[in-house]
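Late entry, written up from scratch paper. The run itself happened at the end of the previous shift, but nothing got recorded in the book at the time, so transcribing now.
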Amino acid sequence: MPLPSPDVTDHQRAEADDFVSYLFRAHGPALLRLALLLIGDQPSAEDVVQEAFIGLHRARLRNQDKALPYLRVAVVNGCRSVHRARRRAAAFSSQHEPPVWSAEAAAIVNEDRREVLAAVARLPGRPREVLALRYYLGLSDTEIAATLGVSRGTVSSTVSRALTALARDLKEEL
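Output as recorded:
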């Protein structure tokens, strides 16, 4: 176990712990919903969000205004890592089963919502991320661009193409 830094007091550590706890209570559920939408299963989504908060705690950010954007980026990147790991695992398995929504979640939502969520899950990664950040977390295009590390114009065009693809997909199902 590393030795604590001599310039960090117990009081500062306690304040940092309190701040991370506050962020978890205030934003944890929304980040979990985001991860669930991007990954498709509850346990993996919970793991991604937990790792994001652990990373935040370890990072000891000096500027608290950067904590929530840090968490959003960490959740999106964690979801990407889960998808990469799943692709690697699928390459070694003889059959691939797509992620399944939990029975609990399926029982709660109505049929139309399940169709929309399934259509969103079929989108490629970037469009799915942009839609989740916009409609689940309610972020502006500028905030989405900062979270994903792309330009604001890329966000706008990605949203437009994703919504067009969703409309086309949902019309075919109806």
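The chain has a mean pLDDT of 82.
(Scratch paper discarded after transcription.)
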